[in-house]
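Lab channel / #folding
Pinned by the channel admin:
"Please post every new chain as: sequence first, then the structure tokens as a reply. Keep commentary short and put observations after the output so the thread stays searchable."

First post following the new format, from NK:
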Amino acid sequence: MRNKLKIAAAFLLISFAAPSLYAADYYARDFGAVPDGVTLNTASIQAAIDFVSAHGGGRLILDQGDYVCGSFYLKSNVLLCIDGDSAILGSLNPFDYVRDPDAKWTALVFAIGQENIGICGGGMIDGRGFDIAVRYTDFVHLGLMEDKLSNDRMVEQKRPENIHFYKCTGITIKDITLKDPGCWNQQYDKCRDILIDGVTVDAKSYWNNDGVDIVDCSDVIIRNCYFDAADDVYCFKSHSEDGVSENILVENCVGRSSANGIKFGTYTRGKFKHFRFKNITIFDTYRSAITIATVDGAQIEDVVIDSIRSIHTGNPIFLRTGTRHTNDNQKPYLKDITIKNMYAEVPFEKPDAGYGYEGPVEDLPRNVCPSIIAGIPDIRIENVRLENIHIVYPGHADPEYAYAGTSKEELDAIEEQETRYPEFSNWKELPAWGFYIRHADGIVFDNVTITLAGEDYRPALVTDDVNGLRMKDLKIIDDFAPKGKKQIITKDTKNIRKK
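Reply from TO:
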């Protein structure tokens, strides 16, 4: 309750502070900016921001057209107001962008160590990401820039994000559209008191187009947003071992992705605690609706996901621990996770077909994966509650193509893969169609229904090395099962309670 009150207090502070902070209005055109979609306005807009901040703050209004810009910096007590008929367009010249020495990323709109800042107004920030990313690659081939060009694209930190705020306090991003960055869309790193409200993201132009990245931030509200992203949608990261992400609320939001919907990771080094998600829809998404992973040493606890619809998504639930980048000083864990009031439908076909940068098109098909709760022997997953959940799976697993058996020897042969990048598809074939649970303690199924829409040779639920499995009102609907088919396999599972 205390943490919920802290989140509410942060929201009230942001909401009621805004009118007094941004009382004065200034127009970018008065500082020489030209909204013709051609003229480079970086210097004019930066001069306007500096002036407004130095004179007590206010709203800097961009109206009557499109303002082409390279990197500029938002300053304290300035609200950048982009009118509904106007936009900021990212420059198509790579030399117009800055890689900030403190943030260590490249962006169109920066804020470094500022307070009481925001972007609003109903307009758009369009990074023109495909064109600028290709131009960066061209410049490397011409010898004008240096980069390894892994997979024939420049490293993420050198391609411009739309927004990058670093070590800022009191942020409001409201009623704008963020379109097509060259890399991640909006990154908030080591910030506090953030409100992201009524924001639309259309970010499918290039690789790594996440919807939002919250990195080591506290007291964050994301609500009433619609994010359509080529990469992870609602993404929470930690880049440092001393980083803390806490008191995060995401509500009334929709996401579509060729990667994951809700994603903890992949960079997970610090602490994550007190997260609340409510009334979330994820659809047409290639990977998982929910991915919570600690593979770089993070401590993750107290996460509640309530009222989520996952429609046409490759995998509903993926909880994972690992040791991709860990050291002896870290004591990672993943515990106290509640997922409740969830409805999910998993398709047989590829759920993100048609994206310009869709998930991998595999040379060979694979049988549809179950939901996965997979710890490793040294980092077990603890205390997961699944309540009021209904998941519909397509079935049609083909044992003639790939057979995943449930004998002790076959289950022991499933690789741990603890150092791999965490994706539900890492194992290719798993021996259950509903849930696969391994190296975990305190798993509770309470009023959970899993339904099979087509024949599947596999059982519904497989557990391996689980201590404390409680199944209350677990319903398995498999109208295609032959008589006598065993639907629950519990290898090395202790303290089982069925009710």
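NK: The two ends are 30 Å apart (CA to CA).
TO: also worth noting, The mean pLDDT is 94.
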